Amino acid sequence: QVQLQESGPGLVKPSQTLSLTCTVSGGSITTSYSAWNWIRQSPGKGLEWMGVINYDGSTTYSPSLNSRTAISRDTSKNQFSLHLSSVTPEDTAVYYCARGDYGLGTMDYWGKGALVTVSS
Questions:
Q1: Where are the beta strands (DSSP E) in 1-120?
Q2: In sequence order, which residues have a C-beta less than 8 Å from that of residue 73 and are 6 or more positions away?
Q3: How far is Cα 12 from Cα 37, in angstroms, rounded to an integer?
Q4: What's the pLDDT band for 16 if we cut at 50, 70, 90?
Q5: Where are the beta strands (DSSP E) in 42-88?
Q6: Residue 63 gets which letter from DSSP?
Q7: Which of 98, 83, 90, 96 is nearest to 43 (CA)?
Q8: How far apart are CA 78 and CA 58, in angstroms?
Q9: Which pLDDT score is estimated for 66?
Q10: If DSSP codes are grouped into helix, strand and coil, which group holds residue 90?
């Protein structure tokens, strides 16, 4: 059973960089054809896919967030991380990490989510 757990600060100030880490257990982030995603849900809005880092280290980002988003990984710790720069209060959301299938866009295992509030 794959499990994912988000961690990071719950409060970030405007203009700073939001950083979250997803720790994976029960599976490896280098497993062939696996894809490791970040998704968020702002208050009163639907789910928004932010980006993915694949088993081979390649990344793809949402066009709407591309200039502010970076996803990295630490294979020795079986973790991957989200970095969102120049945040504003509109970036307040619950942030989820999820495992998916490479190239298919499906996601089968999700973390419980981490609420991040952007406020001064």
A1: 3-7, 11-12, 18-25, 34-41, 47-54, 59-61, 69-74, 79-84, 93-101, 107-110, 114-118
A2: 29, 36, 53, 57, 79, 80, 81
A3: 21
A4: very high
A5: 47-54, 59-61, 69-74, 79-84
A6: T
A7: 90
A8: 16
A9: 82
A10: helix
